[in-house]
Amino acid sequence: MENIWWKEPMRVLQYNLQVRDTPGMDAEKIARETEEMSANVVVMNVGGIYAWYQSKVKYHHINEYLPEGRDLLKEWIDAFHKRNIKFVARFDFSITDDTTYQSKPQWFARHKDKSPYYRGEKRMGDWSLFLNTCATGGYRNEEVGVPVIQEVLDQYDIDGIFFNAPYASACFCERCQEKYLERYGKEMPDDPDDFEADWLSYCTKENIGVIYKAIKEKRPEVPMILYYNPYNTKSKAFGKSDRDNIYDRYATADLICTESQNVLSKGVNGIPETIHPVIAMKAGQTEDGELLPFGIIHSCPGMDWRHVGLPENEYLPWMCQVPAARGTIWHSVTGYNDTITDKRIIKTITAVDKMIMKCEKDMHGAASRADVLLFWDGTQAGKDWADILMKRHIQFDLMHDYCINEQRLGKYKAAIIPEGFPLSGDLSEVIETYVSQGGSILAERSEPDEITEQAAFYGVEDKVQKGEFLYASYMRFEQEGAEAKAGMDTDKAAFRGAVNYCTPLEGTRVLFTLVPPFAPMEVVGAPPERASIPTPYTDIPLGMLRPHGKGKVLLLPFSYHMLTAEFHLKDHYMIASNLIKMLAGEELILDTDMPSGVQITMYEKENQILIHLVNEIGQRPLMDSIPVYSAKCSAVLPKGKQVQNVRSVIAGESLNYKEEAGKVEIVLDKLEVWDMLSIDLK
Question: Is the pTM of this model over 0.85?
Answer without folding.
Answer: yes
